[in-house]
Amino acid sequence: MAQRLARTVIPLIAALAATPYAALAAPPAARLAPQVKYTSDYRTPVMRQVHIVPTISGPGLLTLFGADGLQAQTLREMGNASIFATDDIARAIEGFYGQPKAKTIWVDAGGPTSKAIQALSFLKQADDWGLNAGDYTVKQTYDRYPKGSTERTQALAQFEASLSTKFLMFLQDNYRGRIDPNALSNYYDFKRKSLDLAATLSELGLAPNLSLVIKHVVPDNAKFAQLAIELQFLRSSSASSNTLADINKVVVAMEELRWLPREFPDRYVFINQPAYMAYYQENGQLALSMKAVIGQQDHQTNFFDATIKTVEFNPDWGVPQSIIKNEMLPKLRRDPNYLDREGYKVSVKGKMMPSAKVDWSQPLDNISVVQPPGPENALGRLKILFPNPHAIYMHDTPARGKFASQDRMFSHGCIRLQNPQAMAAAVLKTSIDFVDGQIADGATKDMPVPEEVPVYVAYFTAWPTTDGTVHYYEDIYGRDAETLNAIAAITASRSNT
User: Fold this and answer.
1) What does the record give as the active site (predicted)?
2) Does the annotation mark 412 as catalytic?
């Protein structure tokens, strides 16, 4: 495996940067593992008919292809084309071909151009990058009819409109993924990327080589290229249930990478939940890695990105009301002094009082429970904050034994770090000795990071290490199956377009 990657990773990454897709051989048709059911609650985007209203003006267009004015005829016939697309793509197509100075992109007097042949080749290779080539099929019926016939012009108009629609869909899918992760469940939280479709169509019309257009939309990072290599390797291997399951994991990983920025920054933190690991990257290199504890099955950690802004030393812990209700109240019924004995501070409507004197039958909104700083504090001696609507952060923990477990799902959603001092030092751009000094000071203090650091709280069941070797992890929260079902639903919704 390592030798194979050493031979292929660097050349293929270079090929991706130069001429993505074209350097790769087309693999067998995409396959999903048989255990995946092709049903989904995922609501696919509505497809509507594209209504092109040609507005050809000026006599010059009639002679672009000679006396017969084939391009003008083709553009006029596009008003009768039968094409379906999502509303955003439909509006881009209608605007492009409805403008007074509209020109065809893919056909000329001789029929499909060399650019059209190149576009069709790229669409057929979509499987190489974890997409489904069947989503981008373009029918070619013009050869059934003699040149110069009305029927051939109509078929070329249909071909022109269809190829523009499918290629735009292909580019958009590469740029942001086929599915909207926010529609999968509440565990996903991303601002979905938006491709300027109108500008992209114009660029397609002007570009001498489509590789340049594709290069601007495909994820521009080594991880994506390494997953693409792995996908081709798996598809060339003899099929087995494990191989098919791994194919699924790689396909999902490539889809998920499209939800993240096209290029990873020079400096960031990456948490991969199925691996139970946290990483710190700097200058494109892995500078730090450590074990992590993530959320229990009923307190799953979300998949999102944010920005690290603060490190808090010697934090107190404001106990969430869900934990008060589900975990503390049962203990208080058995022992009303439980919170006092454990050192928690309880207040009712802002007034401090012993836990044994609190009327716990009142609304919990009235009650605050805080664990003061100290060696037994649930957050340990520091936490690393990146504001987000899920109240998730990284932190220390006194429960060090949990890191010895293979499956580390013990938290209520936050990420516990095996070596929090090292991570804090990294994001603060300081030394571990400095961090230890802040802890030893004993005071609770917030320290802003000198530069905000992106953090990706991610969920990848297939992920390459620094040498390009792809590792596979258990789908601990069952999210891959949801994603695969959503992808299958998208393909089904496109089957008649």
Assistant:
1) 395 (proton donor/acceptor), 414 (nucleophile)
2) no
